[in-house]
Amino acid sequence: MNTALSGSLPGSLHPTKAISFEDFRRLAIDPSLSEYERIGFPDDFRSGRDDEIFADIRYKLPALEETGRTILDIGPGCSRLPRILIDLCEENSHRLLMIDSEEMLEQLPERPFLTKVTGMFPDCPELLATLKGRTDLILCYSVLQCIMADMSVFRFLDLSLSLLAPGGRMLIGDVPNASKRRRFFASETGIRFHQAYTGTDDLPDVAFNRLGDTGAIDDAVVSAVLQRARLAGFDAYVMPQGPGLPMSNRREDILIVRP
Asked: How far apart are CA 232 and CA 255, in angstroms?
């Protein structure tokens, strides 16, 4: 889920601020929005890109190719991407659990191996008790920035990691990093990208060594997540997105592994 909304989305949601869980509940049932706008993205950011995105996820979560795994998807939304995951889980006999608002989940298909949990993670004590130390894969894609709007990132991280089985992996994917974005737009490549996108000769507005937007994810937040996970006994890495992904020049992934 994205924090930058296009002009076609509800004007009540500020275009540069994080969207909360309650905001997404309203987006999910807005009949004027496309499936991508309902998860906070303009169509041109995501439409037609789901297969590329999922291929990158599969590379980082290789146990998806195995059989009989327990998988938790935190905040799947209602676009085509969670449907691709559902189809793969059916093919490989995985147990899949998805937690999101009722408004999002009711737009996804029902399957006997799929358990839908209504609510905001990690305010779900029964799910936490059921999956503690037993989850092979956790996917949390384009959601970290929304989590920051609602709760402590450390609380979210600690409870998520408590669910992982030995050898389990958590992918916190599609993390919008304001520091990475600044580095990109300060580069010659980024300047050309900006000018082509805007159709002008203007330079991007980039400044270093100053405080960024309050609440935005930057290098400090990413580093804190890595350090928190490592101090808790997990391996943690920052990984680039595949070059074909729509926002790979300003987003990255965090992969955490329980040894």
From this structure: 14
Instruction: Just give the CATH number of 54-177+217-257.
Output: 3.40.50.150
83-99 tens-digit pLDDT:
999 999 999 999 999 99
Is the pTM of the predicted complex or chain greater than 0.85?
yes
Judging by DSSP bridges, how do beta strands 251-257 and 164-176 pair with one another?
antiparallel
Domain range annotation of the chain: 54-177+217-257
Q: Kind and range of the H or E element at 186?
A: helix 178-186
Are 250 and 178 in contact, with CB atoms under 8 Å apart?
no
- Rounded distance between C-alpha atoms, residue 211 and residue 201, angstroms: 27
Whether 120 contacts 150, CB under 8 Å? yes
Interval 173-210: pLDDT, tens: 999 999 999 999 999 999 998 899 889 999 998 888 77
